[in-house]
Amino acid sequence: MTQNAPTPAYKRIILKLSGEALAGDGSYGIDPDRAEFIAEKVKQIFELGVQIGIVIGAGNLWRGASGVQRGMDQSTADHMGMLGTVMNALALRDAFERLEVPTRVQSAIQMNAVAEPYIRLRAIRHMEKGRVVIFAGGTGNPFFTTDSAAALRAADINADIVIKATKVNGVYTADPKKDPNATRYSVISYDQVIIDKLDIMDTTAFTMCQENNIPILVLNFWNDHDLFKAVCGDTSVGTLIQHS
Question: N or C: which end of the chain has fewer CB within 10 A?
């Protein structure tokens, strides 16, 4: 932690990024400039001493649902998506390393030539030694989303919170693009999310966080210093979902 830096509200986090976060023009592919932008944002909280695990999707490279709609076997489509997350993880690791942030990629699908296998205690040890850990390969099983992978890894490594990076500053009472009277929740309970049928994460991921008492923070990753502010406990950004 740098001198005079604010005290973070969380010791260990899981940051969930969509694959589209890495996409270039046309919302597909991997843009090294976007990877560097993400790395610079995360470096700000890394320098506070926060232990960081990242789970990234693969929507910029492949969407399993699209393959299934065209008759592809679900397991095959999902495994292709898992491989896509490894590509994204490697691109992100490269961006971190160029910023002199030590980083490791751990994959739920073994491919030892390019990534470590996911080993819980090794991942925790990396974080304790000041390394960012990028978890690739989803859960290692088909039929699960990367949201579920984020929730699973958060529970497994005892993360304090799952931060879901989006393009919207939190969860609103209605779609703010359609309803000018929509207001942002600063804090909301798991139960209220279910009652109001708010779309936060897929049901499996959300339930896992709820049952393991892991708060979820939804924020606009791209907006100024929102990630930094939220990690420091600023409730003026994002929406925190937790037990009431």
Answer: C
Question: Which residue is it, tokens 């290692």?
Answer: 140
Residue type at position 187: V
Which SS3 state, helix, strand or coil, does residue 61 take?
A: coil
Q: How far apart are CA 137 and CA 218, in angstroms?
A: 23
CATH 3.40.1160.10 fits 12-242, yes or no: yes
At 119, the amino acid letter reads I
C-beta of residue 84 within 8 angstroms of C-beta of residue 58: yes
At 121 the three-state DSSP class reads helix
47-61, 132-146, 164-178: lowest mean pLDDT where?
Answer: 164-178
131: number of Cβ within 10 Å = 17
Of the candidates 60, 209, 59, 51, the one whose C-alpha atom is nearest the C-alpha of residue 133 is 51
Fill in the DSSP letter of residue 108: S
Q: What is the pLDDT of residues 137-171, one digit of tens each?
A: 999 999 999 999 999 999 999 999 999 999 989 99
Gap between the Cα atoms of 58 and 28, Å rounded: 10
User: What would the two tokens of residue 241 be?
Assistant: 């979902």
The band of 71, judged by pLDDT with boundaries at 50, 70 and 90, is: very high
